[in-house]
User: What shape does this take?
Amino acid sequence: MTQYRSSTLALRNIVVGSKRTSVRLEPAIWVALNEVARQQRRTLRCLVTEIDNQRQESSLTAAIRVYVVEFYRSALTARLRARPTVANSVGALQGFAP
Assistant: This one.
């Protein structure tokens, strides 16, 4: 797991749709967001614009955090389902079935 020195928010300027805006996120979220964009073969601008267009959260930063968590949670679930014995064990420990 990557270690970060602090949880200080990092400010980045990004174009969302046709507007330039500033987004303040934790360094770990910026790294994860860039990894998601790279994995989906999209630009960060395109990904954040989509997140903004589909968001239900009150702010863009909240929507980005939720998107990143849901992305990795979905990836983990898919990986666990590929290994049913592990998925069932983890699901039972956490109180849910995959």
Summary: The beta strands are 10-16, 19-25. The first strand starts at residue 10 and ends at 16. Residues 10-69 form one domain. The mean pLDDT is 85.
